[in-house]
Design goal:
The chain is built from 13 helices and twelve strands. With 380 residues, the protein is α/β, with parallel strands linked by helices. The longest helix has 20 residues. It has two domains: 240 residues, Aspartate Aminotransferase, domain 2 (3-Layer(aba) Sandwich); 133 residues, Aspartate Aminotransferase, domain 1, CATH 3.90.1150.
Length: 380
């Protein structure tokens, strides 16, 4: 089954009781049992829900995985993964990652003795030199947020597995349409499905996909024990969004390519971060492991200060100033004060995240309208 067909059909069957082609919203907290322990596969909705069951099967198929586990948000999914580890264990992650992920590692789990280090992941040799006997998990983002660095998944998986270290790839920026880390050996794939998978800025959701039954069983235990589960309406909305995932992401990528080239030659712009440029570090890796180069573009300004960025951020029309990404509408954001504010300034600057860096999530609007909108704001 090809990807486009998976979005419509994988794990999904008409409702057996009515023939409804859309998976019903099973809005219930509990299920009647015929006798103690004798039921139809569902006991309590924190543990199981039929709408969630269908969604998890569909999500797993999109990532070429056998198991899917849904959570109430992307960070709830990440929280469950880290709960598989204990005091003294170490997570090694990229030094350019989502601020919420950094905050969870450093502010929450550090208190329980789970250590985190953040390193340059541009080459496998550099990563291998940083791994220790205490490293239990390699946490990868690619492309990274917000600098859009590209990590060689296959090479890093090889380095990690030689040392019996698990690998999780946060695939949110790519979506399953562009990249499937399990095909390159990753043990787990995480999504903030709030973003491209949902695609309509109307639901919060997270998921983990894996081919390892032991990992699936442990995550499902944590899912039930900790209770950070999505409701049936959330699952329904994600299922609805998935049906157009390939169409939306394809258009976003096409628009992003045009906008990246426009920004590259604009007098107000000093640098554009976009994996599709041949001069981009690891462009060849992106071309190998991604089908297209994504719908995200970041850029820095010639006037390298917050005031210059604020003027642009406050004067776009079609680009809405907001956190998040991956929706049908285009968004503009300021990572230093918004999505990455939890990362200390000195750490941000080490990876090039300046106060004038602007991040764009390119939607599916007419690209000429989007370019005119940016051009007007950049000329103010």
């Amino acid at each position: 089954m090809q990807f486009e067909t998976k979005t419509i059909h994988a794990g999904i069957e008409p409702d057996p009781s009515t023939g409804a082609i859309m998976t019903p919203i099973y809005q219930t907290s509990t299920y009647v049992q015929e006798s103690p322990g004798k039921h139809k596969g569902y006991e309590y909705a924190r543990t199981q829900n039929p709408t969630r069951t269908v969604l998890e099967a569909n999500l797993a198929a999109l990532e070429n995985a056998e198991y899917g586990i849904s959570f109430s948000s992307g960070l709830a999914a990440m929280d469950a993964i880290i709960k598989m580890f204990g005091p003294g264990d170490e997570i090694v992650s990229t030094n350019d990652l989502y601020g919420g992920s950094y905050r969870l590692m450093t502010k929450i789990f550090s208190k329980f003795g789970i250590k985190s280090r953040f390193i340059d992941m541009s080459t496998a040799d550099e990563v291998g030199a940083q791994l220790t006997s205490g490293t239990k998990l390699l946490w990868i983002e690619t492309p990274t947020n917000p600098m859009l660095n590209v990590v060689d998944i296959e090479a890093l998986v090889k380095v990690a597995h030689e040392r019996d270290i698990l690998v999780c790839v946060d695939n949110t920026f790519s979506s399953p349409y562009l990249q499937n880390p399990i095909d390159y050996g990753a043990d787990m794939v995480l999504h903030s499905a709030t973003k491209y998978i949902g695609g309509h800025s109307d639901v919060i959701h997270g998921c983990v996909l894996t081919n390892h039954k032991a990992i699936s069983d442990e995550l499902r235990f944590i899912q039930n024990a900790a209770g950070a589960v999505p409701g049936p309406m959330d699952c329904f909305l994600i299922l609805r969004g998935i049906k157009t995932l390939h169409l939306r992401v394809q258009r976003s990528c096409e628009n992003a390519e045009h906008i990246a080239h426009f920004l590259r030659y604009h007098d107000a712009v000093s640098k554009v971060y976009y994996p599709g440029f041949k001069y981009h570090p690891n462009h060849e890796i992106a071309a190998k492991q991604m089908r297209l180069f994504g719908g995200m573009v970041s850029f820095d300004l010639v006037n390298n200060n917050y005031a210059a960025a604020e003027k642009i951020l406050s004067n776009t029309h079609y680009f809405s100033l907001a956190e998040s990404l991956g929706g049908v509408e285009s968004l503009i954001g300021h990572p230093a004060s918004m999505t990455h504010a939890s990362i200390p300034n000195e750490e941000r600057l080490k990876v090039g995240l300046t106060d004038s860096l602007i991040r764009l999530s390119i939607g599916v609007e007419n690209v000429e309208d989007l370019i005119q909108d940016l051009d007007k704001a950049l000329k103010l």
